[in-house]
Design brief:
CATH topology: Rossmann fold
Shape: globular
Helix content: 25-40%
Structural class: alpha/beta
Strand content: 15-25%
Radius of gyration: 20 Å
CATH architecture: 3-Layer(aba) Sandwich
Strand order of the largest sheet: 3-4-1-2-6-5-9-10-11-12-13
Number of strands: 13
Order of helices and strands: HHHEEEHEEHEEEHEHEHEHEHHHE
Number of helices: 12
Distance between the termini: 30 Å
CATH superfamily: Alpha/Beta hydrolase fold, catalytic domain
């Protein structure tokens, strides 16, 4: 759930603080859930007092490491085959997605967050992280992707990866990993789940905020919300995959497409990647939809049938240091039931939010606002090393299972990444 936009370890922490005895299953998944409903911490209040007159802090994302420049385009999609699952009065489901792909360059750099979304994040989502309103120039942060740049023809047909953030999180929170995959020759599609994500900006300067959380967040209420969100997300992802399949067949979707996009996706090679609740949905999608060949879960507990049934296709699970099969019942049941190729990697010093853009961004902010509770959200792992390892393992996994490219990275410890342990 939403830690209202925060990154992710907020909810595990917030859920425990608010409800007292929240099961590991619920607390681990509710990653973007409760923090926004909590009063500001002493640290955040102090930070606000110190930052009132300060110049906004500039932050940056690490450059992708693949051989191609990156392009991106945002698109509005409307699924008129179903009513909105989260707002009953709306007769259709409306989504924002972004396509990220290898490009020929040219065009302006895309912002990390669209302007209205950045302003809303600043007002509502950053303060629960201990980052006061106005302290960071969120709208000024740029990605490394060029808006609408032509698709790079030398990359050939593009394997597809669908990305989902943690519950309540916007699609932008995975940009560091997404850009890197695009630079390696993948088409990555990021999805905002409207009325669940903290904020979604649509064309025409229209901002849609999440449906307010119930006033009393008991473990039972949290579990139901997560289940409802997981079902809505699963339908969203299957619909988005339908649109990608149309693109692969040369049929246009949404609005204007970059040159070379029609026919560029290879819908016979599809992966799913998600953080927290997004990781659970990636697993369920892999189980339910035969078009999905392999998936990665970034530290998410499992919700729904997949928790007990597992998957039969290749699956990679990345874990924060303290998140284990012993502490998380859904991990244990999922792992036992999964019969395909599977690996689990534990990142020493990582926290739940380490597998989001908070990993590179929060340390930059904490350098200027030292009372930001950094370790609570992204642990103590070195941010640069954390992102390098995540990119290496995720890239190698999809290269292996979507491209048939061999790797020894999953056979045992790698001296380049001593923070990462392979869990049998």
């Amino acid at each position: 759930m939403r830690a209202r936009a925060t990154g992710p370890s907020a909810v595990s922490k917030a859920a425990g603080d608010v409800t007292g005895k929240v099961t590991g299953k619920v607390a681990g998944l509710a990653v973007l859930v409760l923090a926004v409903s909590l009063p500001a911490t002493n640290a955040s209040v102090s930070a606000i007092a110190n930052a009132d007159a300060a110049r906004p802090i500039g932050v940056s994302l690490p450059a992708p490491g693949g051989p191609y420049p990156v392009g991106t385009v945002a698109m509005r999609l409307v699924d008129r085959s179903r009513p909105d699952p989260l707002v009953a009065a709306k007769p259709y489901r409306e989504l924002m997605i972004s396509l990220w792909y290898p490009a020929t360059g040219g065009g302006p750099l895309a912002p990390h967050m669209a302007p209205l979304a950045a302003a809303d994040w600043d007002r509502h989502s950053a303060p629960p992280l201990g980052v006061p309103k106005g302290a960071v120039a969120w709208a000024a942060t740029r990605t490394h992707a060029r808006v609408g740049a032509p698709v790079e023809p030398r990359a050939g047909r593009l394997p597809v990866v669908l990305f989902g953030s943690g519950d309540g999180g916007p699609r932008t929170l995975g940009t560091t990993l997404v850009e890197d995959l695009a630079s390696r020759g993948y088409l990555v599609v990021t999805v905002d789940h409207t009325y669940e994500a903290d904020q979604v900006e649509f064309p025409g300067r229209r901002l849609v905020r999440a449906v307010p959380l119930p006033p009393k967040l008991t473990p039972k209420v949290i579990a139901k919300l997560l289940a409802d969100h997981a079902r809505a997300r699963l339908a969203d992802m299957r619909y988005v995959l339908d649109q990608v399949t149309a693109l692969s067949q040369g049929r246009p979707i949404g609005g204007a497409l970059p040159e070379g996009m029609l026919g560029a996706p290879d819908a016979t090679r599809v992966g799913a990647l998600g953080q927290s609740l997004g990781g659970s949905v990636a697993a369920q999608l892999t189980r339910d939809d035969p078009r999905v060949d392999a998936a990665v879960n970034l530290d998410g507990s499992y919700v729904g049938p997949v928790a007990g049934r597992g998957v039969t296709r290749p699956f990679l699970q990345l874990a924060a240091e303290t998140h284990t099969r012993d502490s998380e019942p859904s991990w244990k049941s999922f792992w036992r039931a999964s019969t395909g190729w599977k690996r689990e990697l534990r990142f020493k010093g990582a926290a739940h939010g380490s597998f989001t853009d908070l990993q590179p961004l929060l340390p930059q902010i904490a350098a200027k606002l030292p009372k930001v509770p950094l370790a609570d959200y992204v642990g103590t792992i070195d941010p640069g090393r954390s992102m390098a390892a995540q990119r290496a393992y995720i890239g190698a996994f999809f290269d292996l299972h979507l491209r048939g490219k061999p790797t020894r990275l999953f056979e045992g410890p790698d001296a380049r990444f001593p923070e990462v342990s392979l869990i049998p």
